[in-house]
Design a protein that fits this description.
Structural class: mainly alpha
Number of strands: 0
Helix content: over 70%
Radius of gyration: 21 Å
Shape: flat
Largest sheet: none
Distance between the termini: 73 Å
Length: about 80
């Protein structure tokens, strides 16, 4: 019975993922970002524990990227 339920659950998950690929792409991109940040924090000069690297990597991977500045922003910026 348990084997049949796990097969059914796996087939249902595969069907859902095949019908809605958007969340899968976001999950894959988030995992790639996490891995990149984790490696970068490991090679950084700061000495961080593995737990700190995981936390910082999760936070950095979950933040949306900043939009690029538009040319209008540069024109209307006050001169210093």
């Amino acid at each position: 019975m348990r084997r049949r339920a796990s097969i059914f659950g796996t087939l249902a998950a595969v069907t859902i993922l095949a019908l809605h690929p958007g969340p899968v792409c976001r999950a894959v991109n988030s995992a790639r970002s996490f891995g990149r940040y984790f490696r970068d924090l490991h090679s950084a000069e700061a000495s961080l524990s593995p737990v700190e690297r995981v936390v910082f990597s999760l936070v950095l991977a979950s933040t949306p990227p900043a939009p690029p500045p538009s040319p209008m922003d540069a024109r209307h910026r006050p001169r210093t």
